[in-house]
Amino acid sequence: MQVAASYSSLAARDHGMKKIYSLELLDNGVPCSFVLKTMEEIADRQQGIADDPHRHNYYSVIWPFSGSGRHVVDFNEYLILPHHIFFVSPRQVHQIISGPETTGLVILFTPEFLMKNSIREDFISNLRLFRDSSETPALPISGPMLQNLLQFAGRIKDVYAAEQEHKYETIGAYLKLFLIECNGHCSLGPDQNTQNAEVGKAMVQRFKNMVETRFHQWHQVKEYACALSVSPNYLNEVIKSTIGIPAKDFIRNRLLLEAKRTAVFTDKSSKEIAFELGFGDPSHFSKFFKTGTGRSLLEFKQSESV
């Protein structure tokens, strides 16, 4: 079995410059919607070659059982520790540099897998596990939670290895239980006001989707507020009460993240990046980037290229 090239040594390179690459989920070269692998299998196939930065169109659950290493998610670095689970969303850029003798489990599934197995589209978005932002720390697990997750993962593994009726529906049911168990222990707490929480969930999801498709053109809260038929102040309040930062900071962070990705993984100039991100004045973009990161674009690119 082969997972998409995210875990191979075939990353594209251009004259030694790091290049970001996008991947689909494959099983023996055939597109699929669910794959389960051990970290040992992935390491064996890589033959000691470190993973390269990449993004993909599916969700990843990375659960180390033992070993060490680093997990870099959109320029934030986290240690790989036993029984600390990472949840990676589609489009996030990440890189795993695992140490020797690292063991664990990797669960990969597409949005289509959820839909085909009667898991509502908003199930993942309502969890506090998969985040679109660059802050993606691991979830530590222990005690009864660890035992429950081992049980769910064991059932997923057994069913995945077998040929049986309703195979993927069964996997979907256990995967949902697995994620619900993790979500119940996530440190990002829910809104205590149920009505506010429901309003916030819907508004946040619409806002996030809109930012993802419009951030190249729209930089102001009022543009999103107008499209959502609310006032800028109301949008800021709802977003801040739900995800902890106001809408303007969310938009700024998305722009900065895309600027960082483009700077590190392409050879585009600061001026080209500025125009690509909707800044009519490159000097305005340079000031925006330095204010947001504390470094010039060139300084950031050089630091990440070391």
Please describe the biggest sheet, giving its number of strands, its sense, and whether it closes into a barrel. 5 strands, antiparallel
Instruction: Give helix and strand order, one letter per element, not per position.
Output: EEEEEEHEEEEEEEHHEHHHHHHHHH
C-alpha geometry: globular
> Can you identify the CATH class of the largest domain?
Mainly Beta
Number of strands: 14
- Return residue spans where pLDDT drops below 50 for at least 5 consecutive residues: 1-17, 188-196
DSSP helical segment count: 12
How many structural domains does the protein architecture include?
A: 2
Question: Could you tell me how far the N terminus lies from the C terminus, measured between alpha carbons in angstroms?
Answer: 34 Å
CATH architecture of the largest domain: Sandwich
Look at the helices and sheets and give the structural class: alpha+beta
User: CATH topology of the largest domain, which one?
Assistant: Jelly Rolls
The amount of helix comes to 40-55%
- Mean pLDDT across the residues is 83
Strand content: 15-25%
Assigned CATH superfamily of the largest domain: Regulatory protein AraC
